[in-house]
Amino acid sequence: MPRYGRRSAGGAASRRLWPALAAPGVAWLLLLFLVPFYAIAAVAFGGTDPLFNAPLPEWNPLHWQFATMSDVLSRATTGDLRPVFTRTFLYVAAAMALCGLIGYPVAYYVARLARRRGLLLALILAPWWINYLMRMLAWVNLLQDDGYVNDALLRLHLIPGPVHWLSGNQYSVVLGLVYGYVPYFIVPLYATLDRIDGRLLEASRDLGHGMVRTFLHVTLPLSRQGLLTAAVITALPMFGDYYTNNMLSGAPTTTMVGNEIEFYLLGSSQKEVGAALVLVLSGLMLALMAYYLVSTHRASRERPESSCGLGRVSVRSMASAGKWIAPRNRG
Length: 331
Description:
The chain has helices at 3-44, 67-78, 82-113, 117-125, 132-143, 148-155, 170-194, 198-206, 211-222, 224-239, 243-248, 257-266, 271-302, 312-330, and strands at 47-48, 55-56. With 331 residues, it is an all-alpha fold. The chain has one domain: MetI-like (MetI-like fold). The chain has a two-stranded antiparallel sheet with strand order 1-2. A hairpin with a 6-residue loop joins β1 and β2 (55-56). α1 packs antiparallel against α13 and α3 (82-113) packs across α10. The longest helix has 42 residues, at 3-44.
C-alpha cells in the first residue's frame, strides 16, 4: 500500500478512535448530570397536587409554569431569601480570602522551595482520605464549650469565658469552609507554580529585582490562571455547601443557600421551591464558570504570541525590569 494510503487509513482510524474513547464519558455525563438536572427543572416548572400538596413534574417544556421561579427570584432579590444569598456570598468571599492567604504560601513553598515535595503533597491530600462529615465532627469536638480551643484560649487568658463557637457563630462557619476546601485551592495552584520556568525568576534577579519585586512582577502574574482555577474549584462546592453550617452552627442566623435547598427538598412539602433554588444557584455557578472559561481561552490565545513559550506577561515583566535597572547601571 502506498505511504499516502497508509497515512489516510491511519488518520481515519484515529478519527474513529477518539470519539469511541469519549463515548463512555459522554454517556455517563448524560445519565448522571443532564437527566437529573432536567428532572429538577421539571419539578421547578411543574405543578402541585392539590390533594396531597406534592410536586407534579412537567416533562414537556411547552407546558412549563414559571410562577414558582418568579416567586423565588423575587424572594431572592427583595424578599426573605435576600439575606440568605447575601450571607452565602459573604461567607464564600471570606473563606476564599483565607484560602488565598493560607494556600498561596503553602503552594509556593511546595512548588519552589521544598525538598520533599512528595511528602508535603501527601500531607496536603491526606484530608481527602477522610470523609468530610467525619472531619466536621472532629471540629465539633474541638469547638465545644469545653473543647480544646476554648481550653487553650482560656489558658492563654485571651478570652474571659468560653466562646459558644457552635451556637450560630459565623466565624465557625467560615473557618469550617476554609478547613474543608483549602486543599482544593492548594493543589491546582501548586501545579501552576511548579510549571513556571525558573529561568524567568533568575532573569528577574539578574536584572536587579529582589525577591519581592520578582514575586510581584513575575511569579504572581504567571500564576494568575492558577489562582483563577483554584478559586473556581474551591468556590463552586462552597456555594452549595450545607453540611458545614449544619454541623458547626445549625442556627437560622447563619443559614446559607445550600441549607435552604436542603430544607425545601427534604424538610418541606414545597419541593418545587427547592428545585427552583437549585436552578438559581446553578445559574450563578454557570456565570462563574463562563467567566473562567473565557479567561482561560483568552490566556491560551495570548500564550503562543511570545517566543520560547514565555507568556506575554513575562516578557513585559522583563522589559519593566530592564527599564527599572537601566538608570542604575548608567549611574
